Model the fold of this input.
Amino acid sequence: MQWTQAYTPIGGNLLLSALAALVPIIFFFWALAIKRMKGYTAGLATLGIALIIAVLVYRMPAEKALMSATQGAVYGLLPIGWIIVTSVFLYKITVKTGQFDIIRSSVLSITDDRRLQALLIAFSFGAFLEGAAGFGAPVAISAALLVGLGFNPLYAAGICLIANTAPVAFGAIGIPITAVEGPTGIPAMEISQMVGRQLPFLSVFIPLYLIIIMSGFRKALEIWPAILVSGVSFAVVQYLSSNFLGPELPDVLSALVSMAALAVFLKWWKPKTAFRFAGEQESAASIETARTSPAAPAYSGGQIFKAWSPFLLLTAMISVWGIPSVKSALTGHYEGSAVFLKWLNAVGEKLTFAPGVPFLNNQIVNADGTPIEAVYKLEVLGSAGTAILIAAVLSKFITAISWKDWGTVFKETVQELKLPILTIASVVGFAYVTNSSGMSTTLGMTLALTGSMFTFFSPVLGWLGVFITGSDTSANLLFGNLQKVTALSVGMDPVLSVAANSSGGVTGKMISPQSIAVACAAVGLAGKESDLFRFTIKHSLFLLLLVCIITFLQHHIFSWMIP
Done:
């Protein structure tokens, strides 16, 4: 039996309905920021509250609400949970086999300055992983690398989340941009161009902002040439590629150019003093002595290459998985004539499952009368997590770890990540309940009431969407058409408003429950989600304000920037 969404369930009053829809979100903020609950406790409680409001206030049939939660939980396990498990597993293999000591040494040979390490790994390498894979891989892998180098786990997670702001809109080979073309009818190229005229401002600023957070303004100024090289090279390539090539490659190209430019620059420029965190100062002298001592191990190029090979394999596998034709073959949707891809398509088809969700598939009707499809999307071979697992299998032979130890490390990884994955499953379940009940749309419609000030508040919709769903793609699909309709009603260019949804969304990524859970899982901070949330929330709001100002100015003063 079909059920029709109602966006104003409380007496037809939008504002009262919005207040009810806000309750789970406010609870989640309170649970983490004030009560400091463990992530899985806050996630499960928020899911429970969302279910109660969906059933009692929005009159959603209980079985549909519960099955919607299961749909989200399954998505939380695959692909998101699977990516986290395999990413942490690969990192643990390098630690178990002693290869990470060589990786650490090779990074120190480029720079032992924590600020520069953050620029290389959190900002540039993280952006590459976002562009190639998305879905939590950038934060998981980059944060684990920083912890391995000696960063405080909370700082490592927080810095990687903030660094992952600039690339999110073009993540996973541009899916957030290409996906929103469907519901809005606006060509993806136009949205790509507009986003590419907003985010480069953040891309220049984020490296400086990161270093200020880490070390303070004065210490940041000590390395301003490196910050400039990192940010400007990224921003320029991001602008050029998004405006002239399309939405698929800005992250990958920008990240590669930024990494290369900074690494080359550091060959002839060094800061006067190396920065380390307060807890490291005591051992700084001994570290320097060890590094320069003749007795210190001098690793050959071959040894360094071998140590990095698991991550090089990861990069290669994720890059291959991101190629559109390969991606379609891996999920059983390839329609070309290439022999190998046709064979791969046959395998991918057998390992791709999309059963309809009972009581839910095509059983919910939105306001315009369209039934909403609901399936358990299980792309076993097409998941980036499987690409990382293959990299881990190949790394077994390179690092010469025994199958027994390989299996033991995998079991240990799964054991460690049980609670974080429960957190992820619960918060993604909450996102799905919020969407399928109509609560998200209620909140979006309320924000659209801002009228002429919508030109300022437009990015807030994207921020809210990403906070709820954990995905810029989902936020664009959720609010893209609402952005377009509202923009036309208030005299705003819809290209600008839809782009602002994506650009505003990137600032919500660092506080989304899903991202917080992923980051904590990667650095071994399970149960400390509240600390990380408190760390990132103020930065999220500040960066959102910047995007709001940029959008407002582009509408009122710099309208020539709109394609």
Summary: Residues 3-290+299-561 form one domain. The first helix runs from residue 14 to 34. Residues 281-296 have pLDDT under 50 and may be disordered.
